[in-house]
Amino acid sequence: MGSGKAGFEARVEQRVRANLALLEHEFTGYDRLAARHMFSEFCHLETIAVMAAERGDAIPGQLEDEHVHHETFRRLADQHGGLVAPCEEVARLIDYLTSLEGEASLAALNVTAESWLETVFDHVAGWGACDALMRAIEEDEERHVHDALDLARPPAAEIEPIVRDLERMLEAIAVAPAFMLPLIRFAGEQRVCAMGEALCAAHERACAHLGIASRTHRVRLLCRSQRIWSRRAPVPMEMTDWDRTKQRIYDRNADMLLWFEIPTAVNGYRLQAQVVAALARILQREPRLRYVTRRGELFRAQEPIIAMRALYDDRAVMNVFLPGCHRLTWRGVLRQMNRRVKRARAVEYHAMPPMPDDLDKLLPPSRVAAAVNFNGVHGGIGGTGPLSDVEGIPILVTIGEVRAGRVTLTILMDHRTHDGQDIGLLKRELERELT
After folding, report:
1. DSSP readout, 15-81?
2. Distances (CA, A) of 30 to 40, 141, 287, 425
């Protein structure tokens, strides 16, 4: 096919077309949205691999391979709606690796970053979405990782600071919605967690080769906790004609509002714990109140997990998830509240990451069917905070200020998930439980 630049470009073009022919089908619907973002992020990550090859091409055929992979993913992204900009976490990784120089940077690119790519592609090739295509690309990456082990190893003191930085960036990517949500859409949370654990194992092998310790315990902990959390995934429900009608005629702001007073002899955190415990018991007895919605479909939460909205600091609000409260007294709930709030405040607060291009539609349905908010601490008699379509929690119970031995409870319900019978049922049950 010739040598030189023209021959190189012709070989790349021929191989790209061969790769594209391996795609079994074009994605549609929400899978199309997921494919657009997945292939876009893979294209941007391949920039790292191209960079590694251009800095020496010490691995035979690597430069051509990486240009083929990069162009394959770019065209696939274009085919499914257009290439999107890299998410902030991936862009930060690319910028960091671009800024590195010297032998240590080459080892970081070829031994560490390449092993990450090979592991991700190996798992995606087994998910039934685009297996033949990803297997062809993964075979090239596997060879690169193997051949990189023959490269000269820099002194551990030079490579270790770089690897520590890469580990922090890997942690950030592991919780980046723009990167993870498309993968979860195609694989489910259990298999994505397995991929995360395999990434940690591959990174540990790369670190052992470089003669330094690996620090991936936080990513492993994240995978383990997410694997446990995924077992509580809501179950799909058969929808009636009325259920489908509600999804079509009510938008995300079509919420039902109801408020009522009850007598109370308590206030503050004790009152909040009593409301959380009562709400959990009601949701356990009434499965219909555990319904949630996502992408026009109905699901039912497996258990009555309650989200408590609490202050992180003077202004920032966070959700603290409280499982198993239907089995606890209000004192047990209060102890759990205090423990989980303290733990949440010990972690650095991060802003909600942006989700462009309707990426929030790829979010899984909420495991949490109801939340509790305490406005009384601010002097509000009634009223309520908003429901969030990103959170996907369809019920919010707000506790007002206690005055003259009475408190106002306000219920806000997503009309796409519930209707008037449900909000009336919850009101009656809360009155019965709390009085």
Report:
1. HHHHHHTT--S---HHHHHHHHHHHHHHHHHHHHHHHHHHTT--STTHHHHHHHHHHHHHHHHHHTT
2. 16, 29, 28, 35
Tokens of 391: 């959170």
> Cα dist. 303→131, 405, 412, 434 in Å?
35, 33, 20, 21
Asked if residue 368 lies in contact with residue 307, where contact means CB atoms within 8 angstroms, the answer is yes
Residue-wise pLDDT for 411-434, tens only, equals: 999 999 999 999 999 999 999 999
Torsion of CA 278, 281, 287, 292, to 10 degrees: 50
Side-by-side strand order, sheet with 370-374: 255-263, 406-414, 395-399, 370-374, 306-311, 317-322
- Single out the residue in 174, 205, 230 at which a domain terminates: 230
Instruction: State the amino acid at position 10 in one-letter form.
Output: A
127-137 per-position pLDDT tens digit? 999 999 999 99
| Confidence grade of residue 22 (pLDDT, cut at 50, 70, 90) | very high
- Number of independent structural domains in the chain: 2
219 and 245 co-located in one domain: no
* Residue-wise burial string across 316-351, b where 16 or more C-beta atoms lie within 10 A, e elsewhere: eebbbebbebbebebeebbebbeebbeeeeeeeeee
CA-to-CA distance for 412 and 345, rounded, in angstroms? 27
Do 144 and 266 fall into the same domain?
A: no
Over residues 160-166, mean pLDDT: 92
Does residue 383 share a domain with residue 274?
A: yes
User: What range does the domain containing 56 cover?
Assistant: 4-230
- Start-to-end CA distance of the chain, whole Å, equals 84
Rounded to 5 degrees, φ, ψ at 150 are -90, -5
Q: Structure pTM?
A: 0.89
Same domain assignment for residues 93 and 204: yes
Nearest CA to 283 out of 314, 233, 227, 323 is that of: 323
**Sign of the torsion angle spanned by Cα atoms 262, 265, 269, 275:** negative
% of the chain at pLDDT higher than 70 = 97
Instruction: At 78, list the tokens.
Output: 């274009």
